[in-house]
């Protein structure tokens, strides 16, 4: 609860996740897409040479 109150963690349907402030406090770069995995790779078909 303390880390949520301080703004370092957030409660989501996926569970607790580190917020942007939490990433900055640790001196790390947050994931570009908030940690969401893309099941089929890139959403941009022009960026995939196999398509």
From TrEMBL:
Record's keyword annotation contains Cell membrane: no
Pfam families: WHD_RuvB (PF05491)
Entries under SUPFAM superfamilies matching the protein: Winged helix' DNA-binding domain
Molecular functions per Gene Ontology: DNA binding; four-way junction helicase activity
Domain of life: Bacteria
Domain RuvB winged helix C-terminal: 1-26
Gene3D superfamilies in UniProt: Winged helix-like DNA-binding domain superfamily/Winged helix DNA-binding domain
Biological-process GO terms, alphabetical: DNA recombination; DNA repair
This protein's UniProt keywords: ATP-binding, Helicase, Hydrolase, Nucleotide-binding
Protein name stated in the entry: Holliday junction branch migration DNA helicase RuvB
């Amino acid at each position: 609860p303390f880390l949520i109150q301080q703004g370092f963690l957030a409660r989501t349907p996926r569970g607790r996740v580190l917020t942007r402030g939490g990433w900055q406090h640790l001196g790390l770069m947050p994931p570009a897409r908030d940690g969401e995995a893309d099941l089929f790779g890139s959403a941009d078909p022009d960026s995939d040479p196999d398509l």
